[in-house]
Every structure is written in structure tokens, then in C-alpha cells.
Amino acid sequence: MMNKYFEYRKHKTNFKTEVVAGVTTFLTMAYIMFLNPFILSGEFAGPEKGFFDFGGVYTATIVATAIACFIMAFAGKTWPVGLAPGMGINAFVAFGVVGGMKYTTAEALAAVLLSGILFLVISLTPIRAWIINSIPRSLKFGIGAGIGLFLAIIGLEIMGVVADHPVTLVTLGDIKSPIVLMGCLAFVTMIVLEKINAGFISRANIIIGILVFSLLAWLPIWEWTGASIKGSASLAKFNGILSAPPSMSYLFDAIDGFSTGKVFTASGLTVIFTLFFIDFFDTAGTLTSVANVSGKVDSKGRVQDIEKAMLSDSVGTVAGSLLGTTTVTSYVESGAGVKAGGRTGMTSLVIGILFLLCLGFAPLATSLPKEIDGAALVYVAVLFVRNIVDIEWKDISESAPAVLAMITMPLTYSISNGIALAFIAYALIKIFSGEASKTSPAIWLVAVLSVVSFSL
């Protein structure tokens, strides 16, 4: 049945490969179920009245992720993509909308719901696919590489290889720490397993790297004294196996958020537009990058079947807001599953099922050391960055905006900022170099929207 629906033979894959790909992507995305409620509850900035409840968002995150993945599996069945509440957007909602603009959690979720509906309406028309498919080929590869570099800085920070610095902003972390060294060795192992091209072992290199080094970190044989390692303690805490999932505190609160009318004010419309704008570019960049890795970009630079993926993404946001979490979007970590051989929606189905299983096995899922999880993100970053070889380097008017996208994403810590700046630069370069007439109208539209977003 699955073979007939997902057409494994047509896509040169099989059930086993799709399951492995789903597990691989899940392991690189697992941190989302903990990081999203961590951010929305304001835990890292200290508890503050009015922020979201950690437990309620934890459950909503898992259920929304599963639903969105199922939608992608069956509606966008040629896309092996994992979806979950987006990082960055959640921080905007928590600290910008709830903490800064003093919206209630219900009003904030109402804004997320409206942005999702707007996304859905556009996804049902050729407009959004036309815009994305009108992006020049070099800019697409630059966007993909930029997302890779953005993913790399996140992964390196999670690993502890990169740390904050008051003068230089970033510096080398504590690489003498044994758990950081574990993460580095996990990364090297993933690369070596791919290099040796040993069939299943190479395709499952990320899973093997994560599980083997997590197990080593859990063993009670380590103790770090600063000068030596002594046997008596583990490097990472094993938190157990089972727990009861918290109830969803904000189920359908988005509907109640309309009662005050705040989302229809000027500030509310600004919030809705910002949420839509960020989701638009994050999703466009992610789908473009995954398409590059999976071979879904044709000779003219157009992304195949992107309409199905966009529709699934937008419905996921609508569902997520009703469940009690922020904008659901496609994740760049999906590249890990694509690298493991995922080519159909079966990969997404597996991701969704595994997230649902974590409702009862949350302690076990949280036991994965973040340093080793970060190593997987850096590995995926390598896959995205290597596409820069296909940028049209001989034409600086094409390559310069691509490079701008690549470097501004990690430096501004924002995918949307990097894409917006690249489009603005591309439009200006084409105007002043006398090639405006050869430029797609979509470029002008996105460039104008980018300028508007920066002025808000």
C-alpha cells in the first residue's frame, strides 16, 4: 500500500530507506520539542508573568509537529520534509509581541492564526510558487548555502565549539571539555562513515554518530577535573524513560484572541505581516535548499511540486496556532533525511510518528547531549554549503547577491534578513547595470516587501 501511494520505485527509494531517513531527520530535529517551549516560556531570560506555560507548549509543539508532518506526507507526498514551530519566529512572539507589545498569549496566537490563513490563501494560488520559481538560480544556491552557514553557527554554539565574547562577539569555546570533544568526534565519525561509502552504514551515518557517542556520554565512567579524566561520573544525564505528557494549555485560545480586536489594529496588522513575511522567506529558503540537495530543481532553476509543500506548510501553521504554539514551518534539518536517502512523504510520516511517541518518552528524548545533536546540525550544514559551486561566479551581478545572502544569514542570525538583503541588492544591481528589463517582476515584488519589512 505504502509502495503504491509513495511510488518508491519512481523516486528510486524503498520503505527501509524512507524509515531510516525519517529517523535521521527526527534525531536532528528532536531539540525543537524542548527548545520551543523553553523560548516561549521565557525560561532562558528568567520567568516572567504573561509568557507561555512550558508544559502546555511542550505538548502543543509535539502534536503540531506531528500533524504538520502528516499533512506533508499525504498532501505533499514527494517532499521528505519535517515541519515544526519555527525558531526565531517563536522568540519574536514571546519577547516582541507578548513581552514587548503586551499582547496576551491568546491575542498572539490569534495573530499567528491569521498569518497562517494568509499563507494558506496565497498557497492555493500560483502566486507564491511563481515568486519562488522566479528566483534566479544563483540566488537560490546562495540562499541554500546561507542557510547552511546559519545552521553551522547554531550547531557550533550548541556543541560549545563557539562561545560569546564581549569584544569579538564570538570566540573559541571550551574545546578541552570532554563532552565538547565528544561532539567533535561525533561530527568526524559522520563524515568518515559517509566517506567510506559502506551502504546502510554510510546512509545511517548521522544516526550512528548520535547514538554511539550519546551512549558513551551516558556511561558513568567519566569525571572531568580540568587536567584529567577519572572514572566515576557520566558526561550527560540520562533522564529516565517514561513521563505523562502535560495538557495543552492553549487549545483553541487563538479563537478567543479575536475577542479584544487587538489583532485588527495597526500594531496587530504589523505583527501579522511580520509573521507572514518571516515564514514566507524561511520556508522559501528551506524548500529551495532541500530541493537542491534532493535534486528537485530542474535545469531552469525551478523547484518541482513546490505548491504541495507550500500548502502543507501553511496548513501546519493554522493547525499549530489552534493547538497553542507559534508558526509551523519547514525545517532545514530535513536535509539530513534527504542525505540518508529520503525522497518521499514517507519520510515526513515517520518523523511525525516519532514525535508523537515522544509524548510518553520525553525524558529519554531529552537525554541526547546537545553537543552531539549540534554535531549533526554542523554535518547537515556541510551538505547545504557545498552547493555554492553551482553559483554563476563569472557574472558578479548574479554572484554578489548570492554571497550577500550567504554571509548575512549567520552574521545577523536570521534567514529572513539574509534573503531580504540579497533581494534588495539584486534589484539595485540590475537597475544600475542596465538589466532591469531582464529581471523577473517577482524580484521587484520581493525587494519592495523586503524594504517595507525593514521600515516597520
List keywords for this structure.
456 residues; two-stranded antiparallel sheet; 6 strands; 5% strand
How are the SSEs placed, and which strands pair?
Layout lengths: L1 H5 L8 H15 L2 H9 L13 H22 L7 E3 L3 H10 L6 H19 L2 H8 L3 H23 L2 E4 L3 E4 L5 H18 L4 H4 L1 H14 L3 E3 L4 E5 L19 H4 L9 H29 L11 H18 L4 E3 L3 H6 L5 H13 L4 H4 L4 H16 L10 H17 L2 H18 L8 H15 L1
Antiparallel strand pairs: 1-6, 2-3, 4-5
Helix pairs in contact: 2-16, 3-4, 4-14, 4-16, 6-13, 6-14, 8-13, 8-18, 8-19, 8-20, 9-11, 9-18, 11-18, 13-20, 19-20, 20-21
Strand content: under 5%
Uncertain regions spanning at least 5 consecutive residues? 44-48
Q: What's the overall average pLDDT, rounded?
A: 83
Radius of gyration: 22 Å
Strand order of the largest sheet: 1-6
Q: What structural class do the secondary elements suggest? A: mainly alpha
